[in-house]
Amino acid sequence: MTSTVHVDSAPVARSGLPERHGSSSTPRSGVRLESIARSFPSAQGARDVLRGLDLDLPSGEILAVVGPSGCGKSTLLRLVAGLDSPTEGLIRIGGTAIRGTDPRTAVAFQEPRLLPWRTLEHNVALGLPRGTGRREGRERVRELLQLVGLEHAATQRPREVSGGMAQRASLARALARSPEVLLLDEPFGALDALTRLRMQDLLLEIHAAEPTTVLVVTHDVEEALYLADRVLLLRSLLEDPAADSIARTLEVPGARPRDRADRSLAELRVELLAGLGVHSPQPAQPAQPVQPAQPAQPIQPAQTTTEISS
Length: 310
Ligand SMILES: Nc1ncnc2c1ncn2[C@@H]1O[C@H](COP(=O)(O)OP(=O)(O)OP(=O)(O)O)[C@@H](O)[C@H]1O
Ligand SMILES: [Mg+2]
Prior knowledge:
Elements: H1 19-22, E1 31-42, E2 45-57, E3 62-66, H2 73-81, E4 88-93, E5 96-97, E6 105-108, H3 120-125, H4 134-147, H5 163-175, E7 181-185, H6 193-209, E8 213-217, H7 221-227, E9 230-234, E10 246-251, H8 266-275
Parallel strand pairs: 3-8, 3-9, 6-7, 7-8
Antiparallel strand pairs: 1-2, 1-4, 4-5, 9-10
Helix pairs in contact: 4-5
The site of adenosine-5'-triphosphate has 10 residues, from α2.
Keywords: ATP-binding, Nucleotide-binding, Transport
Domain ABC transporter: 31-261
InterPro entries: AAA+_ATPase, ABC_transporter-like_ATP-bd, ABC_transporter-like_CS, ABC_transporter_ATP-bind, P-loop_NTPase
């Protein structure tokens, strides 16, 4: 029997989201990548970083992207965020092709990237959609700080709070515009192990309240299997120049919240690690049948004298 390992999240308001944000019936946008390629100039000519990438990310799905360093995970995220353009192919959000940054998407990175001279509430307010009224904005920021358990730290500045708090503020800022697509690039990578687990639970609670389509890049296979509906394993085209970028797409079984100790995920974990070049030791050889114990021989008294034959 497996035991459930659950780490309490930071205090999170489970209710109190306004209807427009809290209704899971709110239509959300899916993401579609059609034959995406991205190359960058290099001394040897154009070098493909991503190639032949086709992907359908249904609305509300959480997709984790893993792959070796340099395989193009951040590049993929930047493309979906509209911060960069593909060399080939098309990206659609909610059916429409994106051209540049899109108000329906929000991005959070490994470092919180908060403005140091602004309070947390002002930093979160920076994520509000343009044209938000002052009162409405203030109310939304208050809700978001409550959602990520930071209402008590609203007037503190980034240097006065812990790394986990700053990261929660960054997440709140990304959520401020109620994005339909949330893009996270190693969002918890700089946090200590316990804060990281809490942030994962927080993300899932937020997702349950606001079922945004999420694309999360991570190096942590456990994190991918805990958070995602599917895991996309990318390969490095440097190592495999003729291949397409997607090495595997794995469905993660089991409804969320998952049991962190779920043994049924162990195989997927091994598979993902193998895809990342980390090979688990071969399963131990079946144990040899135990030989029945021999009846104990009577102990011979130690020979203490040497017979000298004459
Ligand atoms: N603007 C750019 N100009 C030239 N090369 C770039 C540019 N952006 C990314 N690259 C190259 O593309 C490759 C993929 O970079 P990317 O940052 O997407 O990798 P990654 O998978 O996110 O790696 P990591 O896991 O280390 O964060 C790298 O070799 C990088 O040098
Ligand atoms: Mg990266």
